[in-house]
């Protein structure tokens, strides 16, 4: 049971980085990113490829963040000059492009076979019984640093600027500010966190394949943001915790209801998550930790 709880907590902390990044993009800057899984996969494959070729894990993770930021800059530069809804379409297409690349470019990603034997997040010399707990501690530290960094960002002049742009971009432009530059920077920071989450996932599992990066993951991250509260850091933690409980709790339906197949279980999981967002939307449209509109 302890091993299961540690694995569940580690999984939740990796998701938390994705939720924090999306909440910065959407909750504070008003940027609709439907390609979260694309940046996540890009970070995972970048870190895995670098680490399996001898690059130290910390540098591989840094590389994952940098590589994820490059397309974020390009996509933002191309689409954010137009209406914000163009970004949603562009990022959705980007995620599909990344999926095609990691599936078909076997010379680099090993295609459907995936990349095995990825160096672990912590020293491989550690005891197998001790390693999961140490990895959990590393993930807690990374998330604490990330949350603190985003907390400082959103309370800085930059954070106040992106929030003002979300509320009224025309007014910000009239004050002589450049909304495009602020939005691109916010988008790149969120993408870097998604890339970091992907890298951590690769080293945590020691194996990655295209099947781990399905579009539904973007849906789950959005659900966590909406349930927890858009534009609140506490909401990212609460929303991620609820999402993980819903996803993992639904796995026990097979024990409670005889004859439930894997396909039925997947459908039931989606129904449960969908029902949760409906209930929260009705009773707390601003999210559980969101501020009530007056």
Written description of the protein model:
The chain is mainly α. The chain folds into two domains: 2-214, no CATH class; 215-294, no CATH class. It contains 13 helices and no strands. The protein has helices at 2-28, 36-52, 57-79, 85-104, 106-109, 131-154, 157-167, 169-174, 179-205, 216-228, 233-249, 253-256, 262-283. The mean pLDDT is 87.
- N- to C-terminal separation? 45 Å
Q: What is the domain total for the residues?
A: 2
Share in helix: over 70%
Q: Using DSSP, what is the number of strands? A: 0
> What integer value in Å does the Rg equal?
19 Å
Taken as a percent bin, the fraction of beta residues is under 5%
Shape: globular
Class inferred from helices and paired strands: mainly alpha
Mind describing the biggest β-sheet? none
| SSE pattern | HHHHHHHHHHHHH
Could you tell me the mean pLDDT? 87
Number of helices: 13
Which segments are poorly predicted (pLDDT under 50) over 5 or more consecutive residues? none
